[in-house]
Amino acid sequence: MSDLKPKIQTTKRLHFNSIWLVPLVALVVAGWMLYQNWASQGPTIEIIAPNAEGISAGKTKVKARNVDVGEVSDIHLSDDYNHAVITVQMNSGTSQMLRDDTKFWVIKPRIGREGISGLGTLLSGAFIEMEPGHGDNAQSHFEMLSQPPLTTSEDKGIRLRLTSSGLSKMDVGTPVHFHGFEVGYIEKVGFDIKTGDITYRVFIRAPYDALVNSAVQFWLTPGLAVESSARGVQVKMDSLETLISGGISFGVTKGSAGEAVADFTQFHLYGSRDQAENHRYDKFIRYVFLFNSNISGLEEGAPVEFRGIRIGTVTQVPFHGSSIEKLDALKHPAIPVLARIEPQRIDADFDQGKMTLKSWKELLAKHINQGLRASLETSNLLTGAKVIDLDFVANPKPTQMHQFSGYPSFPTVAGKFDQMENKLAMVLDHLASAPVGATFVQLQQTIEQAKQTFVSMNKTSAQLNELIKDANSQQLPDKLKQTLIQINQTLADYQRQGEVGQSVAKNLQSLQQALNELQPLLRQLRAQPNSLIFNHPAPGDKQPPAGVKTGVSNE
Questions:
Q1: How far apart are CA 112 and CA 140, in angstroms?
Q2: What is the rounded CA–CA span in Å between residue 477 and residue 485?
Q3: Which pTM does this prediction carry?
Q4: Interval 9-31: pLDDT, tens
Q5: Which three-class secondary structure state does DSSP give residue 258?
Q6: Rounded distance, CA 219 to CA 164, Å?
Q7: Any idea where the domains of the chain sit in the sequence?
Q8: For 410-440, what is each residue's pLDDT tens digit?
Q9: E-strand spans in 265-346?
Q10: Are strands 265-270 and 216-221 parallel, antiparallel or unpaired?
C-alpha cells in the first residue's frame, strides 16, 4: 500500500522582495553622484604665499571676474616653514586658464596710494582673485602676488626699464607724467647688485605709448623742489599726489628726434630735467682751470659762460688729478677745476659735421692767443653762486697751454670783483701809510701863525688909528691921509671882527673841528685798513679798575 501513495516533491521558489530596491537605487544614485562630482572637478593646483591671512580651507573661493572657478581645499606650511602652501581645487573647464603667466592675489581691504579698495570683503570675507593666463605652457604651481597688479594682460601700452644711481627709491604705483598729465606708473621696483642701480619697470598706457621713442629722457618729478643755482633760488611745486609720493616725468629734449622702441627698452632716470637736457651734449672738450682765488660758491654743474651765454658745464670741483699733482697743489695756491666746453650748445651745425671737435680746439687755441681768459664771477649775490666766465682781456700776457693730468690748462685771470677788491685794498694801504700826522702838525702850525697874524694886524690897525687922530697928522696932504684911512679900513676888514676876518676865522674853526673829528677815523684806518669795507664791532666800554672813583655817588 505504501507503494500506491503518490510521491510528493518539494521545490523552493525565490521571491524578489521590493524592499531591496531602496538600497539598490541609493547605491546607483551615490555612484552617479560620485561620478558627477569627479567629472565636474578640475585640476588641483598649489599656490605659494608668504602667509595665509584671511584664507580658510573649504570656505575661501577663487574667482575670476567675480565668477567662482575654484575653492581652497587645504592649507599647510612648506617644508622649510617659510611659506604657506595653499591647495586649490579648480572647477571643471579651468585647465586652459592655468598657464605660466596666470596671476593670483588676495582681495581684502587695502588703503594705498591708489585709494581704498576691497571694502566688499568686510562682510563676505577675503577671496583669491585670478587673472587667467594666455601662455603656451600649462602650470600647476604658482606664487601669490603680494598686492593686486596695476595692469592686466589685456591693458594696452608699453613697458620700459629705467635705471637710476644715487637717487632715492620710489614705490610701486608711483605715477609717470608727460607735461603734467598722468600716463603711466611704476609696476615693479628692483635693485641691481652688480651695478648698484635701482631698477624700475614702468608701464605707459595706450595711446600715450606713442609718445615714447629713442630720444625721450626720463627724470624725477619731486613734487616740491627748492634749488639754489647761479640763476637764483627756484621753487618748483607739482600736484599734491607727487608732493607726497614724487613721480617720474619724460619728454623729448629740444632738437632731438627718435625712433619707436620695443617693450622693455632701457632708459636712464635722471635727477632733474636739467640733468636730462645736459645729457644730450655728448661731444665736448675738457679743460682744467687753475684759479688763484677763493672758489667757494662754484659747484659741480655750474655753467661755463661766454659773455652771459652758456657754452659748457663744470664737472668736478676741485679736480683731484693725479697723486703727484695733489702734492704740487700744496706748494702752489692755484686750485684746479675740471670743466668742459660743449660746442653743441651754440653750434647748430655741429651734428651735421661742419665743425668737429678738432676744429673747435684749434679755434679756442686761436682765441686764447688773442686774449681769451677765464675768471670766476659771482652770478648771484644772494646765494653766492659762481660761474666760470670766458671773455677777452686787454693787453693779455703771452701764455702757453700746459697739461694737467692729461687735460689742457685754460689760462685764467682774477675776476672783476677780485680786481676791484685788490685796487681798493691798495688805496686803503696807501691811505694808511700816508703821513697824516705830519700834515696835521703843519695845519696846526698854520692856524697858530694865522692867529699871530691877526694879533699883529690888530696892533698895526690901532697904531694907524692913533696916527690919524694925531694933530700933527692933520697937516698931512689929503691924498696921504686918505691912503692911511684906506689902509686902516683894510686892516679892520682882515681883523677877527671884520668882514674878511670873521670869514677866515669861521673857516679856520671849521677846519680845526674837522681835523679833530678825523683823528679817530685815521687811527682806526692805521690799525685796520679794511674797516671802510668790512664792518668791525665797536670796542666795548672800558671798565675802571677796582678802587678807582668814577664820580658817581653810591648813596
A1: 31
A2: 13
A3: 0.54
A4: 555 555 656 677 777 878 888 88
A5: coil
A6: 10
A7: 40-145, 157-278, 285-415, 434-528
A8: 988 887 666 566 655 565 566 556 565 566 6
A9: 265-270, 285-291, 303-306, 309-316, 335-341
A10: parallel
